[in-house]
Amino acid sequence: MTTSPYASDALPGGTVDAVVIGGGAAGLNGALMLARSRRSVVVIDSGTPRNAPAGAMHGFLVLDGMPPAEILGRGREQVRQYGGRVVHGEVASAEPAAPAAEGDPRFTVALADGRSVTARRVLVATGLRDVLPEVPGLARHWGHGVVHCPYCHGWEVRDEPIGILATGPASVHHALLFRQLTEDLTYFTHGTHLEKDIRARFAARGIRVVDTPVRDVLDNEDGSLAGVRLADGRVVSRRVLAVATRLEVRSEGLDGLKLPVEDLPDGMGRRFVSGTAGSTEVPGVWVAGNATDPMAQVGASAAAGALAGAHINALLAAADTEAALAAGGTSAR
Ligand SMILES: Cc1cc2nc3c(=O)[nH]c(=O)nc-3n(C[C@H](O)[C@H](O)[C@H](O)COP(=O)(O)OP(=O)(O)OC[C@H]3O[C@@H](n4cnc5c(N)ncnc54)[C@H](O)[C@@H]3O)c2cc1C
To answer: Where is the FAD/NAD(P)-binding domain (predicted)?
Structure first.
């Protein structure tokens, strides 16, 4: 799905130094490093960043409290300021093309609308998709009354009645973090197993446990979250529900790159595997941000993108040097 359109640059012809797939914090910061290194770079972005439902971004120095759309809007302008391009569109396929030389690969990246571009290197920064448990009424509160991250939204709901809708072991960790923010915390096991010793720890911290499954989520008249209705009909009022979502790497359209994917522990989702500075087993392809590091917040994602961009530039510089040597020529730049 392509939403939140913004002014799009033209897709360049010929071969660019790098295509960045995904224009969130990771992709834009990678592109910024490349553009400032005088690399031709194009970001292709479908415009659906993970934190789009949130009104403000928190926990990142200086930018704390700024709306996510404003951060990305400014980021796009900064990339453009150095000659980088940002194209609004969805990548439908990406695959290796014939290399220019040994160790200097090429890739063809095609958009859903049929346009395509050739790149020397690819940075994948497509982020992840949060998958909520299937509870009627839950999804419509995502990013507002239903949250996943104490560092992103916790302060804003301090001292409120909060519920943990358990999805697995990660929810126990969640409960202890949200207990730091409120004394009124209820843990809905919702069919998950809770060990006796964890129950004892919860009791010691005053965390109530409800084992009756949640049937649905209830709304106030103004549309905000009112609480949950249990399978036995009882209603438990809550202002906020915290849910540890399943974290699924956004890999649509990228199969042709053959990037290795691995499962996260406890069925928590899947991520692209990466190594030093976001490099992957696939020569010429890097990954940064939530696509490979599901726990990374905006700051960490941006930092990973920057590091990958710098690493790509370094390897391009080495490839340029090899090519110059092979050609036996000299260059003014
Ligand atoms: C509700 C919510 C609130 C959050 N609040 C905070 C907060 O307050 N502070 C904080 O630090 N973190 C917060 N986060 C986490 C934050 O969203 C992530 O850390 C951050 O978005 C990761 O950046 P990214 O660049 O890796 O991915 P994203 O920001 O998700 O960007 C990925 C981009 O890739 C694009 N894309 C994906 N597939 C394709 C494709 N095939 N073709 C083209 N484009 C594609 C998407 O459209 C998207 O624009 C929040 C998360 C959620 C869910």
So the answer is: 17-298
